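Bug report (template v2)

What were you trying to do?
Predict the complex of my protein with magnesium ion.

What happened?
Run completed; filing so the output is reviewed.

Input:
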Amino acid sequence: MTTLDDKLDRVLGAKSGKALETALGLRTAGDLLRHYPRRYAERGELTSIAGLEIGEHATVLAQVERATTRRMRSRRGNILEVRITDGHRHMTCTFFNQSWRERELLPGRKGLFAGKVTAYRGQLQLAHPEYKLLDAVDEGEERSEAEEFASTLIPVYPAAQGLPSWSVARCVEQVLDTLDDPDDPLPEELRRRHRLLDLGAALRNIHRPEDRAAVEAARDRLKWDEGLAVQLALAQRRRSAQSRPAPACPRRPGGVLDAFDARLPFRLTAGQREVGEAVAADLAGEHPMNRLLQGEVGSGKTVVALRAMLQVVDAGRQAAMLAPTEVLAAQHARSLREMLGDLAMAGELGAAEQATRITLLTGSLPAAQRKQALLDAASGAAGIVVGTHALIQERVSFADLGLVVVDEQHRFGVEQRDALRARGGEETSPHVLVMTATPIPRTVAMTVYGDLETSALREMPVGRSPIATTVVPAAEKPAWLDRVWQRIVEEVRAGHQAYVVCPRIGDGGRDEETPDAASGAAEPEAGQDEGGADGERRPPLAVLEVAPALETGPLAGLRVGVLHGRLPSDEKDAVMRAFAAGEVDVLVATTVVEVGVNVPNATVMVIMDADRFGVSQLHQLRGRVGRGSAPGLCLLVTEAPGGTTTRERLDAVASTLDGFELARLDLELRREGDILGAAQSGRRSTLRLLSLLRDEDLIAEARVEAQRIVAADPDLVEHPGLARMVAELVDDERAEYLEKA
Ligand code: ADP
Ligand code: MG
């Protein structure tokens, strides 16, 4: 009999075992049984050809319409073209020098066809597909055939070249036939309460379902495995983070925080006060705060963070603020200094009595400055150290680090947060406040950020100006693009400034700063489904090409500056400074302006090739305008044709300023595997069935169950099956983290 731990080559023989391992990375019977069907073809019902995506490896159940062989002129040989249909649309399968197949691919026969979907002259194709005719009754095959397709639901597996779905199915059958009923990791009592199948039944049902209801029951149960494993890992993580000692930083009256509050030029919003109090209480505690603060761009997160940092300084400790880029770190340091004024001038002439010092620490500081900054951090002379995320990777030492503020966390994963918590003094973990301007849907907050408490700033401080967003279809309406440049000229004449954002730098650098690379937030495959044949798109517009073209063309006479991630940092800083001072009218930039950059006089943001950016990214970008008294205008320039999903996406961004709405849309459009940082295909990924979009209830229930289980049994000694699931999950995460690093 077979157990889930048995190696596949033992169960299935060396040849099949090897094929499954090389093609799909499956090694044990358990691995194979957790390789679930992607969908089920229904016997008698053909697969819709219209639903196929170019580039996908597809398995379709279709009917042969006709087959023709013709000689090739250029080369010797012949080509067999087989037209298959779903009853509505058709596609072509091509075979070289295999005209004998014409004898079995007879019109009217049905079969499964598997291969990579391509497009050729507007026609969908499968080039040299593998196929299996359903009604073929070759000798010897008859029996297995009958068995394999006895059910009306034919499982279609994620397949790989050389290992078609039906071969996987045959291997699964063989394993199921000899499988011992497996030990169920889920406690029986939990299964009963949630009405879940046991593991053995669920595995059988998902691979050989009698009907759709059986599939659903199996999925429900198997999703629980995934949801519970994730939530158990998070519950353990929260527990271990919370059980560490932290540097307590109780509020001290009469210190720098009180002095700052006394001179604040505005009233805190109700939300700022509420979150501020929660944070203050956390900081006073003996265990580390782990909190996520969400709030739209401009909602006033920075003030909340600064007040938290000042409480820590008042307690005689240090705070660090981490930004994703050097430009942002420099800008944060500058704006914190501005907000604090003489309260940030410790050691300088004219400093206030309670003053502290803010030190900027980035990788590209000149050696002497860098040395001084490191010294200030280590000696405690700097109350607040501002730097890039790299600050934690390098072993910068602090005299007494009490709080780390991470700004714009969407490039900052669980592993990095763990690394942060492991920092600080010998024994203690610093408090951590993570801030994000991208609203996070509840399910994502419960999984990807499930190690954090969350709070949100929902109202904007008064005095924000509205932002109008318009899509500019440059291909269909070239005149609109001319109008875009005119608008910029008009705004500049009126004394305002503008941004023009491009997806690429254009200096031919190896790792071009494309939106995909910059944030992982864009959908790399977006647009591919409607562009016809893939791989034919022009490269995205580049800063270094667009800037000179504008300067000598429609924006002649305006002062145009250039900003991107590969400028030396003093140049970056100089450009930002000049733009902030109004000495540059138009800043042509990559997404380095995406977050945190604050120039209230800028009123227009033009985003070129807007379709190359993710929804959240576009939302972030437009938050750069409308920061002053004048209304903001955001123009999304695209060549994507109307009616495509790409254009719908841009229209959605233009239609709402509600960040939560957009976050949900983003979630729908992004592949969930990417959100979780897991590779989508080929490798095992953490969540196979569980959907962050559709399984909100299950995730919430699993979270409650996990909390309860870990509270009673922190190390899961009573639940070895669960402990193992969690260990496998954490292993996978580590492997992915190492691969990315
Ligand atoms: P975020 O970091 O969330 O994008 P900031 O903290 O940078 O937002 O705040 C944006 C702007 O609003 C800043 O100029 C800040 O001084 C101002 N601001 C913050 N809180 C308030 C408030 N309660 N009332 C008025 N203006 C505020
Ligand atoms: Mg900010």
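What did the reviewer find?
Residues 301-302, 596 surround magnesium ion (ligand 2) (CB under 6 Å). The mean pLDDT is 84.
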